[in-house]
Write a structure and sequence with these properties.
Structural class: alpha+beta
Radius of gyration: 24 Å
Protein name: Dihydrolipoamide acetyltransferase component of pyruvate dehydrogenase complex
Oligomer: single chain
Number of strands: 20
Keywords: Acyltransferase, Lipoyl, Transferase
Number of helices: 7
Helix content: 10-25%
Strand content: 25-35%
Organism: Pseudomonas fluorescens
Order of helices and strands: EEEEEEEEEEHHHEHHEEEEEEHEEEH
Largest sheet: 6 strands, mixed
EC number: 2.3.1.-
InterPro entries: 2-oxoacid_DH_actylTfrase, 2-oxoacid_DH_E2_comp, Biotin_lipoyl, CAT-like_dom_sf, E3-bd_dom_sf, PSBD, Single_hybrid_motif
Length: about 425
């Protein structure tokens, strides 16, 4: 038997150190070639480190959250034969995952299909023995899905990192017919003194750093306007009824993307990036719309490139493809970078008003709140209309308040008179 030592690989781009974000193995585990051993986080992306050999883990070189130099010992594996006496670096890392940029609360686990399966597959079994006050790890989307299905997350085995419950775990649980299983119920007014400490590392640390950086560097201001979306919702329903089966269903998002494209023709200063170190504003002709998407590991922003050249159905298909790729861990670095303006929405959870945080170096972000039916006065008559707020933020260093207001009013006009979205 011998020892194969894997060193922290050179990720490239001149990076000298990376953060160890997550172990997917522990001492004593048997691993196979190409199995993912750990996640490491650079300034720009999360990277999977695969095993180049079969063997048994005998030592780990660091703890999650630790910053490690390139070339330092990452992991030692016991192997058949003489082992790796030269302690060569790990093979080329795979599965680059872009960290989330700062955004408002929005609706984006990023593990690519190319990576080998984790040592833990979707867990099976009737239920999980958790304490009554133990909170299972799960994203907000998974928690809502479980609530809709009537599943108690305490009873579901998690197959994600650190036992995180994923959507496929809910599916596996339902397939076993366990959705009606009963769990002990804690006393409704029992006194609790438990505490939980969560280390901010990996993707969450990068999100926190970028959010803080954005709010410290940019002079944020927000502008909120309500929009009557009755007409555009009627148009959307009509198009879905007529073309949904052949072209796919339309949500409101592709209409919003189209409204951005048209409005930006008159307000090019919103479709820009500001390099505050070089003191240069770059206005783009191309409209690359970032669509904030929530994933199990945090917020991600896949980019609909050249939205100005896309039809409603083309935009809808691209939004759906990118969101699924981000949630399922298949989005590439190029798909998660390069936006010129961002659209963020919490869908039905959108609330009345929000204050989105800019995605630097962009200078504008448009936030979408939920649609509600309200009595409104139209031509002297009280009628029920579908209303929605746009809560948008701008960088006051380069965008004047009047221009921001006029920009949102232009979007409002386009959405309230949807035919104008398509008049050239």
């Amino acid at each position: 038997m011998g020892t194969h030592v894997i060193k922290m690989p050179d990720i490239g781009e001149g990076i000298a150190e990376v953060e160890l974000s997550q172990w997917h193995v522990k001492v004593g585990d048997l691993v196979v070639e190409d199995q993912v051993l750990a996640d490491v986080m650079t300034d720009k992306a999360m990277v999977d480190i695969p095993s180049p050999v079969h063997g048994k883990v005998i030592a780990l070189g660091g703890q999650p959250g630790e910053v490690m130099a390139v070339g330092s010992v990452l992991i030692s594996i016991e192997v058949e034969g003489a082992g790796n006496l030269k302690e060569s670096a790990a093979p080329t890392p795979v599965a680059v995952k872009e960290p989330a940029a700062p955004k408002a609360e929005a609706v984006v686990e990023t593990k690519p299909a190319a990576a080998a399966p984790r040592s833990a597959a979707v867990c099976q079994g009737p239920m999980v023995a958790r304490e009554l006050n133990e909170r299972p790890l799960a994203s907000p989307a998974v928690r809502k899905h479980a609530l809709d299905l009537g599943i108690q997350l305490r009873l579901v085995r998690g197959s994600g990192p650190a036992g995180r419950v994923l959507h496929e775990d809910l599916d596996a649980y339902l397939a076993q017919g366990q959705s009606n299983a009963q769990a002990p119920v804690a006393a409704a007014y029992a006194q609790r003194n438990d505490e939980e400490q969560i280390q901010v590392i990996g993707m969450r640390r990068k999100i926190a750093q970028r959010m803080q950086d954005a709010t410290q560097r940019a002079a944020h201001f927000s502008y909120v306007e309500e929009i009557d979306v009755t007409a555009i919702e009627e148009l959307r329903a009509h198009l879905n009824e007529k073309h949904g089966a052949s072209r796919g269903k339309l949500t409101l998002l592709p209409f919003l993307v189209r409204a951005l494209v048209v409005a930006l023709r008159d307000f090019p200063q919103m479709n820009a990036r500001y390099d505050d170190e070089a003191q240069v504003i770059t206005r783009l002709g191309a409209v690359h719309v970032g669509v904030a998407t929530q994933s199990d590991v945090g917020l991600m922003v896949p980019v609909v490139r050249h939205a100005e050249a896309r039809s409603l159905w083309d935009s809808a298909a691209e939004i759906s493809r990118l969101a699924n790729a981000a949630r399922n861990g298949k989005a590439s670095r190029d798909e998660l970078s390069g936006s010129s303006i961002t659209l963020t929405s919490l869908g039905a959870l959108g609330g009345i008003v929000s204050t989105p945080v800019l995605n630097l170096p962009e200078v504008a972000i448009v936030g979408v709140n939920k649609i509600v039916e309200r009595p409104m006065v139209v031509k002297g008559q009280v009628v029920i209309r579908k209303m929605m707020n746009l809560s948008s933020s701008f960088d006051h260093r380069v965008v004047d308040g009047m221009d921001a207001a006029l920009f949102i009013q232009a979007i409002r006009g386009l959405l309230e008179q949807p035919a104008t979205l398509f008049v050239e």
